[in-house]
Amino acid sequence: MRILLVEDEPALREGLARQLGTAGYRVDTAADGEDGLYQAREYPFDLLIVDLGLPKLNGVSLIRQLRAGGHDVPVLVLTARGSWQDKVAGLEAGADDYLTKPFEFPELAARVMALLRRALKATSTELHFGNLTIEFARQEVRLAGEICELTAFEYRLLEMLIQQRERVVSKQELSDYLYPHDEDRDSNVIEVLIGRLRRKLDPDGSQPVIETLRGRGYRFVREA
Asked: pTM of the full predicted structure?
């Protein structure tokens, strides 16, 4: 899953990004509110972590503008100790939860997982699609009870398609999700990954997993 961390304090930003990356998340960062708002509008994220005391554009304004534009991505705000007014302002702007500094990483990780679980509209971190099971907390995929070995990119692609399973996801959206915005992208890689996923998740071709809609994109087709 992809997280945008908007934090102006370099040591905290780099430390959290490293710990979240170790926990299995794809993490993009921004050091000010303007860059954070730009990235949140332009790229598909599953969660935003936003410090309220940001330069150029404060966190409350960032969230308010994002919500005004129709973005419903979950937002966890980071606030200073004792600033209850900031907490209220962040929630009223459209944040989903807050965490007071200083905090321990396990607490942040628990809040992140709770928000992602809520966004997935699931009561647990595990979803079942016939003989296919996805356990998000462990980033584990099982086929008929057996572990299905996926590469990091294959797993991220499957995760994105499952989250957006109510609609067709374009190749461009998948590319934006898989690659940092400052890297070169090759759309052919998406086709290769889709092909590999199909072979791994439906080896005998009897239970389709991903549908291709020519000129439009891809859709996860199994029912939960």
From this structure: 0.67
